[in-house]
Write a structure and sequence with these properties.
With about 325 residues, the chain is an alpha/beta fold. It folds into 2 domains: about 5-225, P-loop containing nucleotide triphosphate hydrolases (Rossmann fold, 3-Layer(aba) Sandwich), CATH 3.40.50; about 235-325, no CATH class. It has helices spanning about 5, 50-55, 80, 100-110, 115-130, 145-155, 175-190, 200-205, 225-230, 245-255, 275-290, 305-310, 315-325; strands at about 10-20, 25-35, 35-40, 65-70, 85-90, 160-165, 195-200, 210-215, 220-225, 235-240, 255-260, 265-270, 295-300. Strand 1 (about 10-20) and strand 2 (about 25-35) form a beta hairpin. About 30% of the residues are buried.
Length: about 325
């Protein structure tokens, strides 16, 4: 039995299309999200990620196709869907003149909690997202990052089994981004299923086991990250050695295209995939035979980055990234 056969699929889209003014923002999108773990919806700005999420949460009706979330149609059965889903939109709507705690208590009461239970739950969640000391702060006076954490707290109020987070680290400083990503990992370890949308590849790679890559409304590929990068090899490699000039000359002698960076430490070596194994053996051998220290020998680009760039913009994006890297930018 394969993984896909044994896993319970809690979200499924079939040929979903969404038009705005006769322009397809999402086109024939078919995607499965299994129960448990973190699924990353990855794509550049304007790829259709937020529109997809709004359809999953019933905020938008698809122009065509079918969506199922826990067996419900999110457009016609939104109340049933949102009993199980916590949602952090890209732009959160909050009561700006209220304090953080009163805003969340109001929402918790709407969800059916008593006043006492609402205050207790809200304080737990505010501490969990790292702004417990700001419960009496007026929302309009909070920073963008603090409001983002408040939105995350709102998504967690009903203790949902499925979290949908649209750009959850937007507006956060580096420390805040790390905190929130660790928090998302904690939620996943508690058995929750999480869909996180982002255009920041390193963040997706850090916490997700599965991804879907979307661009111009099309799902380009989807699956486990380990499967997507299994047979991906880069063409450019970075080598840090104690004798870069000497190694550079040796590489010229064996017909490898190489280039010294301006600081004389990094070497860019273009490797023909047909000679991949030979290349990986050659560099350590040259350094060993000449008693040069080999500090670093790695592909210039992460395999997932290579997959992403080749799919999203195969003609220019990856080539420009390599060109920029060679210029030392």
């Amino acid at each position: 039995m394969t993984d896909s056969e044994s896993e319970e699929i809690i979200v499924q889209t079939k040929s979903v299309t969404k038009f705005f003014d006769q322009t397809p923002v999402v086109y024939r999108l078919s995607m499965d999200i299994p129960r448990g773990g973190i699924y990353g919806l990855l794509g550049p700005n304007g790829a259709g990620k937020s529109t997809t999420i709004k359809m999953l949460t019933g905020c938008l009706k698809p122009s065509s196709g079918a969506i199922s979330v826990f067996g419900y149609n999110p457009w016609s059965e939104r109340a049933q869907v949102m009993k199980k889903v916590g949602y952090l939109p890209e732009r959160t709507g909050v009561l700006q003149d209220k304090t953080a705690i009163k805003h969340l208590v109001f929402l918790a009461r709407l969800g059916g909690l008593s006043r006492e239970a609402a205050y207790k739950r809200v304080r737990i969640i505010l501490n969990q997202v790292g702004i417990g000391n700001m419960e009496n702060s007026i929302i309009s006076k909070m920073s963008a990052g603090e409001k983002q954490r408040l939105g995350l707290a709102n998504a967690l109020l009903a203790d949902p089994s499925f979290l949908i987070l649209d750009e959850p680290t937007a507006n956060l400083d580096p420390e805040g981004r790390v905190y929130v990503l660790d928090l998302i990992n904690d939620f996943a370890s508690q058995g929750k299923t999480i869909l996180i949308s982002s255009h920041i590849l390193p963040e997706i790679q850090r916490i997700c086991s599965r991804i879907g890559i979307i661009s111009q409304g099309h799902l380009l590929t989807a699956g486990r990250i380990t499967d997507l990068v299994k047979n991906v090899y880069d063409e450019d490699y970075l080598i840090d050695t104690s004798h870069p000039n000497e190694l550079f000359e040796e590489l010229k002698d064996v017909s490898y295209l190489s280039n010294l960076s301006k600081d004389g430490v990094w070497i860019y070596a273009r490797c023909d995939p047909n000679y991949f194994e030979t290349f990986w053996t050659l560099i350590p051998t040259l350094c060993s035979e000449n008693n040069w220290k080999l500090r670093t020998f790695k592909s210039a680009r992460d395999p997932l980055e290579r997959v992403f760039m080749d799919l999203v913009n195969p003609q220019s994006a990856y080539a420009e990234a390599r060109s920029s890297e060679r210029r030392g930018n």
